[in-house]
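User: Modeling request: complex.
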Amino acid sequence: MKQKSTAWSLCVFVAAAAMLSSPAIANEKLVELSRKDENWVLPGKNYDENGFSPMTQINAENVKDLRPAWSFSTGVLNGHEGTPLVVGNRMFVHTPFPNTTYALDLNEPGKIVWTAKSKQNAAARSVACCDVVNRGLAYWPGDAKVKPLIIKTLLDGHVEALDAETGASRWKMENSDYKVGSTLTIAPYVVKDMVLVGSSGAELGVRGYVTAYDVKTGEQKWRAFATGPDKDILLADDFNSKVPQYGGKGDLGVKTWEGDAWKIGGGTNWGWYAYDPKDEMFFYGSGNPAPWNETMRPGDNKWTMAIWGRDVNTGKAKFAYQKTPHDEWDYAGVNVMMLSEQKDKEGKQRKLLTHPDRNGIIYTLDRQTGELVSADKLDDTVNWVKKVDLKTGNPIRDPEFATRMDHNAREICPSAMGYHNQGHDSYDPNQKLFFLGINHICMDWEPFMLPYRAGQFFVGATLNMYPGPKGDRQNYVGLGQVKAYDAITGKFKWEKMERFAVWGGTMATAGNLMFYGTLDGFIKARDSRTGELKWKYRLPSGVIGHPMTYMHNGTQYVAIYYGVGGWPGVGLVFDLTDPTAGLGSVGAFKNIQNYTQQGGGIMVFSLGGKGEYQDPKTDEYETAVNGDKPATVATKDD
Amino acid sequence: MKTSSIAASLALIAALSGAPTALLAYDGTQCKEPGVCWQPKPGYPEKVAGSKYDPKHDPKELSKQGDSIAKMEARNKQRSDYFKKSGKFVYDVDKIPK
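Assistant: Request completed. Predicted assembly structure:
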């Protein structure tokens, strides 16, 4: 144990020494760490958030030999979204409420180095819309003065920084007030010496914002809202200058609402961030307007439902593109942003951002200007929109699938869950393919009036959900898909149906593999070139998180959280049977309980199950026999 | 009068052609200015205040979030200011030395 502490301290010392010997800032250190196979330091491994590992030890030819190497129970049974982080010899694990954090020793996998059980108010659970999930942790690599930190969010709205070596709390700030309906489920995001945090609660009329805190002190650096006057939204002088057709300055965040409705207008961001270190811009999506009942909020409702590109230093927006103006279906625009550099159709090399949206469109933008490069349907069954006009950016809607008071709109595709939800997907830069976990769910939608009361649900619609046209509506399966997508040609190289929604997302490797978990409890690997199913393993519970991979002592591991729940599992978690309960998810997933039950933990795989415990003496406890001295037991660090 | 006659004619053409009657509804193509394209659906008001769809928001309820955010920001500032000054983090602002 002492030697392990020394090893970790040495790691910290080396990191600190690197800081002293060069002007490198923490940001650059994080970039450096993210490039190594041994680490997975961001939700999608790197700032591109492409969820791609260049490792090939596990590949399409040998993946059939993948076996469990070790596992760990988190002790929590609610839905486990996101993925753990790995830095050197440590795996950092998060849980849903009560948001326990574990640091595990990868030399004795599963052994707990420290546990952080942060205090928070359990009343926050009553205002969480869709189970009590959390999407992950952030790692800050330290500098000459402050040791590395783990940053976490708590459901009751706090942001906390922990010493990565000991788990001791360094600072804890209030970001969201659950008493007015605002919670935190997002994974914090470290950029430079700041940590970015969003907010949740649009289903309770929460006005969304993103905030940057000084990672060392917790001091607020800036805060940018999604609605309201320009000064609150933080718009750069050249905001949307390259894309004036999207709308510009002039308080559109107020004028596109009636009266003060923007104050309770939603636009929370609880999904994922991506960052371009060269341009010092970060990208994310703002969520749905509140309430869901569109008749109650006339106007375009800016700037909910937008893709944002902001200067990370000032928080000021360089561009914003509203994908679903005046949303009528809860197509919250918070999904993953994946960065790539590719040639467009004209052969021009461009810095791109690709975003599979809830509304069933996958958008690719020039991330320096905000210009639309492509906008394709995630599935040909999307029907609320005919197409997106690439010049204006406007979705050309099909009024047949519009929603409004005194009308029960039927057969809308996608459902409020979107054809893609919070899953963190991946991109293989070698094949130039995005691997997408898809929902295949449609809905009927009937609005109703309700008053706004701070801290109470503010939705105003009754939903019935069911499998999309390609699914099995008799048996309520065929609710998901996986697809490989080329953002330049707009073509899907391959696509496969799944029994349930592929809620958690995907991970890709240079071994020509893409991995993902399923709600019914499998982790699967497909040949990323063809979609051929190469391997699967039955987990203790369904999956709503995304896989990750890391190298340790020369062995490549693949890890994934199991723990069904989240929005699709809310009926299972809370034992609900009314098909319209859980904002409509109970009906869609009424068969899930026949395939899996609650659980919570991590399963880790390697070829042949190779790993620390192949030697049965690893971490073994031996006692004295007949007065003899205990035998010395060798471990990796001895 | 002339405009309404044209609209009626268009509706009649739509009906005769079998097209959905919502054909003339909000489809995102009629923009007043860049980024401002919403239009009320046929039969629904442009402003809901005073209509049967008026949510009748209570200004006191609408101000609660803003008030809460301002108080949280003030408490956080006290915490970070003292942390920077003393090197000691104190969460309970009532216990932060003045």
